[in-house]
Amino acid sequence: MFISHYNICELLKDQNADCRVHAPDYCLTGFESIRTAIIPLSLHTLYVVEKPEDLELFADDTTERLLDALSESVNLLICNTSPEQAAALLGERESQLNYTILPCPLDVSIKLKLREFFNEKNGMGLMAESILDMLFHETGIQPIVDKFTRGFNNPVFVFDAGYHLIACNYDMAVQHPAGKHIVEQMGLTEEDFRLINKRRIHEKIKKSDHPIIVYHEEIGCEQMLCAIDTRKDIGHIVINAVNRPFNEMDIQLMTMLKEGLYQQMRKEEFVKDNNGFPYEYFLKDLLDGKIATPRQYLAQLNYVNAEFSDSMYCLVVETARSSSTLNVFLIRNRFEFLLPNTKTLMYNGEIIVLFCLEKQTELSEEDYQNIRKLCVQHGLFAGISNNFTSLLDLAGYYKQAIRAIEIGTAAEPVPGLYIYNQYFMEHMAHIFFQKESPEVFCHPKMKYLLDYDKEHDSQLAYSLYMYLLYERNSAAAAEAMFIHRNTLNYRLAKVDSLVHIDYRNSLERQYLILSYEVKDKS
Predict the structure, then answer these.
(1) Quick check: pTM over 0.85?
(2) Cis geometry, peptide bond prior to residue 40 (ω within 30 degrees of 0)
(3) Is the Cα dihedral 176, 178, 182, 185 positive or negative?
(4) The domain at 5-116 falls in which architecture?
(5) Distance (Å, rounded) from C-alpha 376 to C-alpha 414?
(6) Would you list the domain boundaries of the chain?
(7) Could you tell me the pLDDT band of residue 392, with boundaries at 50, 70 and 90?
């Protein structure tokens, strides 16, 4: 922190201090009496002249060493004098010196004020230097918080925009019940959420560039709160005054801490790629599995001020598959305007789109066509999950969308929309094959027909499968197979001559259909 004569004047403005700056204004780091000064004098020390007669030392030609010291710029605080007296005493050397004039005696209260001022500013300067060093060496958020712990001597908590705890001075935090509970659940308590919603504290914090101090009735102490960035909601800092009351220096330290955290968090991919809406952090917590209980989910959901319907779809765009660089913000914007109440975020390099249907329970064929058109237009490889009703299940349906892309592109790797509902059998078969052989699972009668077809180059197994799939409607099955109905009937008669099928048994019908599906996917 740069300390100059102007800062000294501001500090002692109640005593009508005035300054004269003629030479280069070197940063001051402390003060001491001119009577006990060590020669040569330092350019960074404020030398206190308590009585005007002390300046007579400078006019004594026999004090050669002291005169030599004054050949360069020196900083003086001249007390109990007027500007005219000070200029007269300094004489020709007045234009070489920087000095502040104090028209009153230097009493104990002024000395204490100077000492506290220099201690505070020098401490903050060292803290700022430490932050720069940590930012330069990419040490992260937690080391910055640890560094500030000694300055605050109170528990410090740093939350992201979803109120998930990302850093705190843990040893000090767990010494108090409220802090311990926050650490245990890695976020705010239900009582904190209730207080936030009741008093709209977070809305005030997001709009203030300066720290806000409030009294937390449940904890029984003051809290200092500060947004890390008011332009984009990326998180905030909370300090509980459980060990000592707040002072002016805490406010300045908080301002420095938020600037340091802001610079550090700007480097993080999630902060950089998203818009800073609370729901983005909330959805990220769900995808990361950090919200495990409905109780915690409901408390946090009240905070994010976002509506999630009872009918949702998760769409994932794998940006790495695209042949050209994507404008992710443009694409997110296009999806958000495609259907009402749609929410997007960047997660692990992918664009996540959450369609929240308000008046309908399922996407229509027209909706699918519009989504597919957007994907093809921008060269996107996108997968969409089945419909789901609970936001707590988001992680599972996110994986569904990923599987749709994986399975769909394995057959035809072109940009477009891959719908999980069209690939669920391949997914199920893949999971099954990891533990069992398709040969073991296959119904013996279907296995016999498949082996027979392989030996005789026939299509009996496929014909039986289609007949059962179309619920024993031979006309519909034949039309789907593009063959004459009599041809299908001939094949079914051949099947009956080889194996006995109990067509009235629903379990056997299901088993035969699944057996053909699994063998076909193997």
Answers:
(1) no
(2) yes
(3) positive
(4) 3-Layer(aba) Sandwich (3.40)
(5) 9
(6) 5-116, 138-273, 307-422, 438-521
(7) confident
